[in-house]
Specification:
The protein has 545 residues and is an alpha/beta fold. The protein has 23 helices and 18 strands.
Length: 545
């Protein structure tokens, strides 16, 4: 079996790993390579990605030598040849929007065999991404392609988005468009054992936290625009402090700060009179995160933002054996069993955003997400009740924490999740082998750049034009000068073609004849030879005569 992708799954900026999506993608890749059963993993990457953070990630994963040998790195230009000669079982990507639509046409046109294309959902509420969704309605997707949704909420939303886009585009164009693929549901995964093995007392000692206070923990990006409004939580925590006296409690909020939101929250906590009971931790390390979960008594996350689709921090807390109190919202609904592994606090919304829906195309996306989130509220009093109950009832905390850990192991451990992926891919692949319906190969969004932009230059070179080797070209042929090739042209500029062309053009040659001779002698494709000749003209190795 062979796995293919155009996606590195790895972010180049280490700070980006504070974001849940980036963490999930990197851990998915690690788990797929470690637990997957594919014979080979083919990555089609740019030179910078291959030589940089992707290879670095492979080294840091601590993979066995046998696994590393199954990883094959290629440049994107080789995908046509690979599709024609290799039977792939699936092409999968960390976000269904990025490559899914266009790759489906490329597969339909070039592949010798039928295979599924899949990609998962992350944030699906951004208005500007709907045009990417719409590309999937124009015929390239097949019944064995799938948008993999990480939650029931995401699956429901994606189904509604595609239906609305289908109706809108069919009505406006007078034609019929339709997404022909599937929606399947598989959750994000987690390395459960990573959050085990540290006891509460030692974790608090290492973090210099009070040994006997109750600790309520929240982990997530500090952003009222794209994550959650934390004012309601601070209000709820004020109620908690009043109810648990004479015991003390500390609310720890940890994450990456956006737009100085931490200072705003500090001022709000001070005005509420609870500033000394709230601690903020900015840009923590992975090791510190593990200690924070271990040191806490209860985890809380009152998410209210439409861009939230899953809730990675929630299952991290569950893996640490902590009861969780979360908003009854979107992906969180799937993660928590109310009254058994934690509590889900009711959230409420009301229809009345018709104008806002119409204005989203001209609003900055964090702004309209803030507008929507500020009209959706969580039951603050009930949130305080749940947190208080858990803090004052040690047996309940421990029982819920134990059940949360068991649920994390049973449903979200990466080995379990990867098995779900492989089962789905096998099912889709089997459907693909039985499908004999014609596939659309013309991409309606693929435009001919040469036809569009041919008026930009002074003129166009025809095949009967004559070219000749320059003195600079002769220096390269004799080895007197080594030409530096830009990284992303590696694999496109081919040394053998360059040397053959320089050698053949000492006395001048017709371009068409030059291309034909190199193709016959060296076996290269016409497009490859043609591109190299134009590049040589650009770099003064050849000249027009």
């Amino acid at each position: 079996m062979i796995f293919g992708t155009l996606d590195s799954f790895v972010e180049s900026d280490n700070k980006d790993l504070m974001l849940g999506r980036h963490v999930a993608n990197l851990e998915f890749l690690t788990a797929l390579l470690r637990y997957g059963s594919f014979d080979e993993y083919h990555f089609f990457m740019s030179h910078d990605t291959i030589s940089g953070h992707l290879n670095n990630a492979f080294k840091k994963m601590g993979l066995e030598e046998g696994i590393l040998k199954r990883i094959k790195l290629s440049f994107p230009f080789s995908i046509e040849e690979k599709l024609k000669n290799i039977k792939y079982n699936v092409f999968h990507h960390s976000d269904f929007m990025t490559y899914f639509p266009s790759l489906s046409y490329i597969r339909n046109r070039f592949s010798q065999s039928k295979f599924p294309i899949t990609g998962i959902t992350h944030s699906i509420s951004y208005r500007e991404n709907f045009s990417n969704f719409a590309q999937m309605l124009f015929g390239g997707t097949r019944p064995y392609d799938s948008i993999i949704c990480t939650s029931r909420g995401a699956k429901d939303v994606m189904t509604k988005i595609m239906e609305m886009l289908k109706d809108n585009l069919s009505e406006s164009s007078g034609g019929k468009v339709e997404y022909k693929g599937r929606f399947d549901q598989i959750p994000l995964g987690i390395d459960v054992e990573r959050f085990q093995g540290v006891d509460k007392a030692s974790a608090r000692l290492r973090l210099k936290l009070p040994p006997d206070d109750f600790i309520v923990l929240g982990v997530g990006r500090f952003s009222v625009y794209t994550k959650m409004d934390l004012y309601p939580l601070l209000n709820a925590f004020k109620m908690v402090l009043e109810r648990i006296k004479p015991r003390n409690a500390l609310l720890i909020l940890a994450g990456m700060d956006e737009l100085n939101y931490i200072q705003i929250l500090k001022d709000f906590a001070d005005n509420l009179g609870i500033g000394r009971s709230v601690q903020f931790i900015k840009d923590f390390s992975d090791a510190e995160k593990t200690l924070l979960y271990a040191a806490s008594d209860v985890f809380v996350s009152p998410s209210d933002n439409l861009q939230e689709t899953f809730g990675l921090s929630v299952i991290e807390a569950m893996a640490a054996g902590k009861p969780v109190v979360v908003s009854d919202f979107d992906g969180y609904k799937d993660l928590v069993v109310h009254g058994e592994t934690g509590y889900k606090v009711p959230t409420y919304w009301m229809k009345g955003h018709d104008l806002l829906s119409q204005l989203t195309p001209v609003l900055f996306r964090p702004v309209y997400h803030l507008f929507y989130a500020q009209s959706l509220f969580i039951d603050v009093k009930l949130m305080a009740d749940y947190i208080t109950e858990l803090l004052l009832n040690q047996n309940l905390r421990e029982e819920m924490g134990h059940r949360a850990l068991e649920k994390a192991r049973r449903e979200f451990a990466w080995k379990v999740v990867i098995k779900q992926y492989e089962d789905l891919w096998q099912e889709l692949y089997s459907i693909a082998q039985k499908d004999d319906s014609p596939a659309q190969i013309k991409d309606p969004f693929q435009l001919d750049y040469f036809s569009i932009f041919r008026q930009y230059p002074t003129g166009v070179i025809e095949g009967d034009s004559m070219v000749k080797t320059t003195s600079f070209g002769s220096r390269i042929l004799s080895g007197q000068f080594t030409f530096p090739i830009y990284q992303d042209l590696t694999g496109i500029i081919i040394g053998r073609i360059v040397m053959s062309a320089i050698s053949a053009c000492k006395e001048g040659s017709n371009i068409n004849q030059l291309i034909s001779n190199i193709m016959q002698r060296d076996g290269y494709k016409r497009d490859d030879v043609h591109y190299n000749i134009m590049w040589m003209l650009k770099q003064n190795m050849l000249e027009l005569i």
